[in-house]
Each structure stands twice: as C-alpha cells, then as structure tokens.
Amino acid sequence: MIAVDPGLFSSLDPPRLAGSACASCGTVTFPAQAGCAKCTGTDLAQVELADRGTLWTWTVQAIEPKAPYRAPDGGFVPFGVGYVDLGDVIVESRLLGDPARFEIGMAMRLTVLPLWPGPDGSPVVSYAFEPAGGGA
Amino acid sequence: MSTEVAIVGVGLHPFGRHDPGLTGMAMGAQASRLALADAGVSWADIGYAVGGSNVSGKPDTLVGVLGLTGVPFVNVRNGCATAGVALATAANAIRAGETDLALVVGFDKHARGAFAASPADYGHADWYGETGLMVTTQFFAMKDRRYLHTHGLKDRLLAQVAAKAFRCGELNPGAWRRTALSEDEIMQARVINPPLTQYMLCSPSEGAAAVVLARGDRAADLCERPVRLAAVAKRTRRFGSFEVFAPWLPPEAGQSPSVDAARAVFAATGISPSDVQVAQLQDTDSGAEIYHMAETGLCEDGAQQELIDLNDTAPGGRLPVNTDGGCLANGEPVGASGLRQVTEIVLQLQGRAGARQVPRQPRVGFTHVYGAPGISACTVLTA
User: Fold this and answer.
1) ipTM above 0.90, yes or no
2) Rounded to two decimals, what is the model's pTM?
3) A82 to chain B: which residues are within 8 Å by CB?
4) Residue A107 falls inside a structural domain
C-alpha cells in the first residue's frame, strides 16, 4: 500500500490519521498544518488522531465529479462522503457502507480506501470511515 | 458624519446560457452601458471603477471597450462574494473622496455543470481533489443535512424553497428558469447529493450586472429615486464555522462569516433585521436560503418552516426573499451574482419590479452573498 499523500497517515497498518496539535491552545487540525487557525500560534506538533468517532453529517456523491477527481480503474461508482467527529477534531472523509444506513450520530471506524494501482502494482490508498457496527 | 453613497443606476445582462461567441467581458460591457444609461451619465463621467470576474478575464480590460479615460480600475476575485466586495471597494473610494461617481461591474461565463476547483488554489494538496472530496455541492448537502437535523426541519422544506424560486422566475422576464415546478417534481428529480436534487441546486451560468454609485449629495440630481447604500460590509470566516472545502473543523461551533457581515451592516445603520422588507440571500442551493435567513438575523433558527409554510418569503409575504428567483432561477455567473441581488433590491425599492413587485412600497432592503472559501458580504439599502 502507498498513501495517496505522505502527510495523511501516521500508520497505514493499522490505519491511523496524522494531524497536528497546537502547543499553545491544543487545537487539533487535519491534515497537519504549520499555523494554528484558532490562536495564530506556530508551534504545532504531529499527533495521531482517534480511529473511531461518530457521523456528524453526510451525503452521497451521486454523479461523477469533474477533474481533478480521479475515478477508479473500473469507472465511477457513487460514493459516500461525510464528516466524522473524532472528539478533538471533525474530519471530512469518504464513507464506505450502505448510505441507506447512514445516520447522524452513528459510530464509525477508520479504514483504508483503495484508489488505484501504484507504479509497482501495489494499491494507492486514502482513508475512509465505515459504520463500526454493534459488535466491532 | 461619513459621506453618504447612493445607487443611481443599475444594468443587467440577462443570466442564463448565451451564444458561445458572446464573451463574459462583452456581457460586462453591455451591463455597464445599461447602468450608465439608467443613471443618465457617460463612462467619461466615472471617476473610479471596480470589476469582478472569477473565470472570464481581467475586468479592467473593459476600459478598452468602454473608453480609455484613464480611470482607476480595481479588479476583485472573491468567489461568490466577488460583487459584494467590489461594491464595498467602490463605496469606500467615494467615502475616501477619490471620486463622486463610480461604476461597479461583475460578469462571468461558466462552463456547463458543477464548478471544478483546483486544490492548490484553496491551499490543499492534490489528494483532496483526486479522492473526490473537493466538490462544492457535497458541502451544500452536508451543511443542509446538519442544519435540518439540528433544528428539526424537514427535507421537504428544500423543495418548498426551490418551488418558490421558480415561481419568482416565472414572474421575472429576465430570469433564466421561467417554468414553475411542483414540490413533488423537485423532490423526485435526479439526486445530485442527497438530500439535494438537481432543482435544489443553482447552476453555474453566464451573465453580467453593473451599478453606478454616486456621492449622496449628487444622487438627487442624477436619479429621481436614488437608493441609499446605507451600509456594506465584508468578512472572512472565523474559527469554528463550517465552510466549503474544509478537510476538518473543530468540535466547537463558530459563526459563519454571514453572521459577522450581517451584524456589521445592521450595527452600522441602526436598522434591525426585523425592519427588512425585501431581501436577497445567497441561495446556491435551496438549503442555503434556509440557513442564511437565520445567519443574517432575518429569523430565528428553526423558524423557517412556519415562515415558508405561510408563504411569507414569497413576493406578497411578510419577508420576501429572492424575489427575482435568486441563484436557483437565474443561475450563478459568480462575478455578477451579488450585483444582480443589488439590482433587484433597487428595482423593488423604486417600485420598478413589475409582476414580482413587493406590495406596500418597501423602503428597506438587504442583500447577502457567501462564497468559497468562507467569505460573505452584505448590504443594507434604503429608499
């Protein structure tokens, strides 16, 4: 697996997202950034984000987006999009699972999202959240 | 006491789809000439110009067509809020004493279909666009869903707002979409991003709009019924507001820039939101009209259901909103959209709005634009 962007993950297996936390006010951002949007501080350190949260809002991308969107090799298939509340930060994400089951407040967990084959044949991946289910 | 600024002329090149050979700039020139004629002045009289376009070229190029008078000309490019920022810039030039007569023009000619945005233009890395997260309509749908959920409003309200927009479009000879649609037709149309169907989303379109501003003491000489630009304000987003093209937001909620811009114009005028008799709000989708009613202070969160059920936001209602059909019935040439709003309020306050005229001669109007990546501009206009 290769991450679609080197800054997104602190670990790919198991998947964990990398953010940043402000040393002055504790504000957490995703992805990591160099300045704090809340207090204007510039001392930010990388942190690992929670891999579980709750669905804050969602939709489905029912029609194929224009470029720079890149469809998978098999062609465009509608996909879920949402924001997941991880406690310290609410993260925008692709969603996996049946949209008919999506509901604000439902438990979600982080997973990897295969995108397309990389130069060496191994998949290029991004992140997604999926319903955590009762027994997970 | 600060210098008064008035609108003494308006001009609109119809929004919609036009001949492929008709450029955005040519539409901008036409709107400018219409506004100058409406004010009864010539381009040579204009001492300061501001132009806005998102994709159709550098507005100051217009001097080559309108006349090389040497006039100072500022270009503005602030997304959907472009025209509001352009108007504020020109008004400030008058207040600063640079001129007593200014022209503001906005134009755009967009390709069909949803807007395509470049991640780099908004400070994002390529993954954000490549993985399909950088789509404006997703944001509209997700903000709508969150808002409706939080305030206990029903999805059908989205169709009610769109149906009202097309009813207004039917009454507006200059509108792009002039066919009324039922709520059921709107609900059952093609889903783009649930809960939004195609008729709940505005389409990028083509068009231009222009206004002539004058220093208050000259306005009465130029215009029988000048409309006072009582206040104009623009704001960027603050921490915690939920904005388009945002990979993250903090758990602590913040106010949108629309809240700040609206408060600023009301505070500057002493006019209260409850005094507004006709309003133009950014309705990039029908949900945006719903939450912008509350963000601008025109109603409480959650009160929209009753207002809309009572037809209070229709031209004959207590709080008419987007009487010209708004973005939903006119489409959005981004650089021109805010000046279309101002033009409509001017026509309403002057009693020139034809079949969609708000009754009882309104005297207080309000406009609001909102755009990516989280910017808003508002005006209060008075007869």
Assistant:
1) yes
2) 0.95
3) 142
4) yes
